[in-house]
Amino acid sequence: MTFFFFVISLELKRELVLGELRDLRTAALPFTAALGGMLVPVSIYLSLLAGHPGMHGWGTVMATDTAFVIGCLALFGSRIPSSLRLFLLSLAIFDDVGAILVVAVGYGDALT
After folding, report:
1. pTM value?
2. Which of 18, 72, 73, 95 is 20 to 30 A from 110 via CA?
3. How does pLDDT run across 79-105, given as a tens digit for each residue?
4. Chain centroid to CA 65
């Protein structure tokens, strides 16, 4: 799993530095979509579990889309335009990085 995220992150970095996402306005769309992809599931989760003991597990619903996106890309293969492929991969990476940060900060203990 670490190698997978490393390779995908290298692809995203290449696109941010040299590719189509080097323009801030172009990169803002998948970033904003990823932010919405994190906030909407959390708000649904919190609204369904308001006042219940499982409410503190809200951070686990954030990173559920990467496998789905990669599966769709593999299923459709070369029939998908490269711009859509780039959008979906960057959205999934932005979403996963955000979810990893939330889990690390929100659920991690202090290092001693």
Report:
1. 0.73
2. 95
3. 888 888 888 878 887 887 888 788 888
4. 7
**Which ranges of 49-81 would DSSP assign to H, the alpha helix?**
66-76
To the nearest 10 degrees (0 to 180), the angle between helices 82-107 and 24-48 is: 50
Q: What are the CA-CA distances from residue 84 to residues 1, 31, 49, 77, 81 (Å)?
A: 24, 14, 35, 12, 5
From the CB of residue 90, how many other CB atoms can be counted at a distance below 10 Å? Answer: 25
Buried b (16+ CB within 10 A) or exposed e, 14-44: ebbeeeebeeeebbeebbebbeebbeebbee
80 within 8 A of 73, measured Cβ to Cβ: yes
- What is the pLDDT confidence band of residue 64, given thresholds at 50, 70 and 90? low
